[in-house]
Known about the structure:
It is built from 4 helices and no strands. By secondary structure, the chain is mainly α. The protein folds into 2 domains: 7-54; 65-105. α1 packs across α3.
Amino acid sequence: MKKYKIRSKQFKRQVVEEALTGLSTNAAICRKYNIAYNLLGRWKKQYAKGKLNNKALAEIGSQERIKELERMIGQLTMDNAFLKKALKHALSQQEQSEDLLETTYPVSEISEGGVEC
């Protein structure tokens, strides 16, 4: 009977990370380290679950998503503040133009049209 080689978690993690970089194919990595193709697949599953002394891929993905959402919140907050200032400015401009119109043409002097009798 053939004995199984016991590989350390560090070695497994190193092999999987090399495979995940995509610089070489899984088949080339299997030949390089003299491991079975199915074994590499099993190690990848363990790596994804965080069982090779690493953070689980789902956890890493969640952290990246949180960072992305925090950046979006910051951008939206800045946009919101800008739009509030722009609205305030537009309203003050509108009030100024109405005041100018009122002083130039008082409401009492503006006729409704038609003929006076």
